[in-house]
Design brief:
Helices cover 38% and strands 21% of the residues. It is of the alpha/beta class and 449 residues long. Bound molecules: aspartic acid.
Length: 449
Amino acid sequence: MKVCKFGGTSMANGEQIKKVCSIISGDPERRVVVVSAPGKRFDSDTKVTDMLIDCAGKYLANGDYKTVLDEITGRFAGIADELDLGHQIVTDIENNLYTRISLPYDSPEKFMDRMKAAGEDNAARLTACYLRKLGYNAQYLNPKDAGLFLSDEYGNARVLPQSFKNLAKIKDMEGIIIFPGFFGYSLSGEVVTFPRGGSDITGSILAAALEADVYENFTDVDSVFVSSPKIVQNPKPISVLTYREMRELSYAGFSVLHEETLEPVYQRGVPVNIRNTNNPASPGTMITPSRENNGSPVAGIAGDKGFCSINIHKYMMNREIGFGRKVLQILEEEFVPFEHMPSGIDDISIIIRKKYLDNEKKSNIMERIAKELKVDSVSLEYDLGLVMVVGEGMKRTVGILSRITKALSENGINIRMVNQGSSEVSIMFGVCEDDVEKAIKCIYNEFFA
Ligand code: ASP
């Protein structure tokens, strides 16, 4: 059995949904299908999820939410029209949206998640309806009925372990199951969503629960590339990657898969196949537990901006037992996650995503580190970008670091910090944010040009 997931651009309009349904019906093993909300039809278009967030925000602020709600209904009505589905489904979707907005709520986050989930939920109903019109036995399955239970972290949920056993029962259901991505239910019965882009996670949970032969993730590119095509011209495609390589690359900016996608399939060893809805003949990229060495030590190069670093200096830090723990405890108490922690004998740098550090948290943390840990100096360095060079083959190869640093130095890029984990599957470089793209290009040229 194959579990498939179709992203926002695959669901953007009627023409795209026709392609989706022809892919589904082209292979009887494609039995469980996860869909996203309709995404952008063209560059300047707005995703349905963003329209829903806008609508919910306006409702909460007593603004003109009705205009946006009508636009959302209009998007679905346009799709229903292109698929020639008749008026009933449009009335159903309209009622669904009005019910969501008018039911009482006890916190803005709960209300927001209930509204955000409407894109996937109605897209799934619409897709099932179209497949039935084509003569296939297809049914929409609600995540609550299927037992997809999530933690009650609104907008940032995680799957609860009992969901896997519940979802395994889908195996016994007849026909093609169309499952909305991006949301599930808390144990108290409220709609809860994953982080943005989270339909990928739904697909992975289902593939793991059903022990699928493969999780096919359909998007709008032929494969994963060694570097982003937005940065490097015609980068090399990748045919096979390991889970670890993909995880590192998505962490550092590859947007093909949501960063949290791979955990469920990794646990059960289900391979993932990234494919293109607009070119289903292309084999895409396989993500597997291990792969043959293809001769290139580096598999991919990614980069991301928006980091900062708290640099702490204290003479004789290395002799102070518990120093690292105390620093991290301050971060924990301020509820700020950290990304990396490179250190020297008298220095520690804590790398944090800027979005987690508002002004209040920033001054609390800096003050507490200075006062409670009696450090010689603590400073904050902004404008930090990270570049990750990733590849399982690096472990067995001498001289990778020297080739990268040579390429960076020849291009005048200052390396602010370097970090390599013991697995040697990736090397991370901290550079000035403005240098991220240039760094990716020159490392790509060093290994692939
Ligand atoms: N529709 C949601 C978003 O735009 C989830 C997804 O598409 O995966 O973030």
